[in-house]
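Notes from the 1:1 (GR / supervisor)

We went over the backlog. Supervisor wanted to see one worked example end to end before approving the batch request, so GR pasted a single chain during the call. The sequence is below; no edits were made to it. Supervisor asked that the structure be written out right there so they could see what the output format looks like.
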Amino acid sequence: MKLFHKIFLCFALIFGLTFQSAGYLLLDFSYENAIEQGKRYAFQEFCHNQYLLQSLLYLEPEALAESESLSRLAEEFTVPAALYRADGTFLFSSMDTQPAFPSFTDAEEGRLHFQILEREDKSCVYVYDRVEQGETDVWLVTETDISGIVDAQRGMIAYFQRLYLLFVCIGIPVSYLLSKMLTDPIKALREAAKRIAQGRYSDRIRAGGRDEIGELAASFNQMAEKIEEKIADLSAAAREKEDFAANLAHELKTPLTSVIGYADRLYQRSLEREEVKSAAAYILHESMRLEALSRKLMDLFVLKRQSFPLEELSVKEIFAGLKEGMDAMCGERGVKLHIELQEGSIRAEYDLFETVVQNLLDNALKAECQNILIAGEREKSAYRLTIRDDGRGIPPGELGRVTEAFYMVDKSRARKQHGAGLGLALVRRIADVHGARLLLESDGKTGCAVRLDFPLPEGERNG
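Structure output shown during the call:
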């Protein structure tokens, strides 16, 4: 059974049972209250007629033996009445129909007794009690008509039945509308979930209202956004893996083909010394590039699969330990290295930081620069390290892709310099390990600036 049908049936049952129960209780209370009022009225009439009987017996002790006195008494009674001797023998009655009473001997003395009898034409309350006056001892029974009360009750029941049918006719459509109003947002959620399951991840539902349904719709939209983002990330990761595999295969295929070709040539032919030297040089060049490629790939995979402990290190002390190696790298190319560092500390892993500096210097040297500036300045919540060169630079349209694995702006030049397009990808991965932000700036003509913002340790942050 669908939720709509459940809610509709619940509304209908609750409405019907509640209205019917409330009506029954109200009618029952009204009837009981009316009967009590009828009993009180019957009691008052009995007391009045009891007083008349006692007065007559006081004035005429033998009145019950005289038919004339009984006739006069019948005229004075305000309601139909009957008299019985103490032993239950019938004496007198002005009632149209004599009711059948239980044995008077079972009745308790000194206590009024009520009995309600319903006949086809009317309903009456009978009150009886023992009356003693002098030597006379009789039972007095009075009859009070309550047919009006019973008829009014029946009329109320008939009216309630009509009213109940009217409210049922109104309540069923109202229950239907309420059920529809409650379940329509859930249906919308269901349809949206189906669309998302079919791959339409951008679909959303309108989250109206501030009730639980509105909150559920808002949460559903948030979930859909997260799913869309996750799918986009997974798709991007899948594309990146495909590109990585394709680029890796391409980068391996070209040098391996050349190496195999030259090795086969050396093996099967007798070559001049210069030709042998040229082939060996090419094999050495390509082997060095493959070695660099394998080393960078290993570094990338290690960074991806491991976490590294970071310790607080002074930036000046780090570069003091790296300066000799950097001077050697720049000296081989005749490039001037300038270092301007402010005091400051960062949380870093020394070997990984050294790898970052070496890769950035290597990229700058391959860009045929004349000067390299390494500057460090302490910001409010970060230490900014900038490595700037005056080489060829990177075209602005390429800046967004140079950190992708195997991406090279000038592939022919990069291969000649043993490049594999992994340097900046490795730098980006190491920056992520350190929680640093990597930014590249270049106009494609006057060099390139690589900026790394390392978060300061908690104790050194201002504000």
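Supervisor's comment: Residues 3-59 form the longest helix (57 residues).
Batch request approved.
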